[in-house]
Amino acid sequence: AAYNGKNGADAYIAVDGVVYDVTGQKGWKNGVHHGVRAGRDVSLEFSTSPHSAALLKQLTVVGTYTTD
What we know:
Blueprint: E1 12-15, E2 18-21, E3 32-33, E4 36-37, E5 40-41, H1 43-47, H2 53-57, E6 60-64
Parallel strand pairs: 1-5
Antiparallel strand pairs: 1-2, 2-6, 3-4
C-alpha cells in the first residue's frame, strides 16, 4: 500500500500475485490510471480492462505475494 504513487512514492500494482512497477508509465500519474489506484491488487480490474498480458510483460517485476 505504501507504493501508491502519491507524494513521490513509487507506484506498484499487483496482478495475480505478481507485483509490477508502473512508476513513470504513461497514464499512471500520481498512481491512478482511469480510476484504478496503485498500491493494491488490481487483478479484477485488469481482467475486465482492454489491457492484455502483453502489457504486463513490458513492466518491471518487483516482487510476488500471496494472501496466505
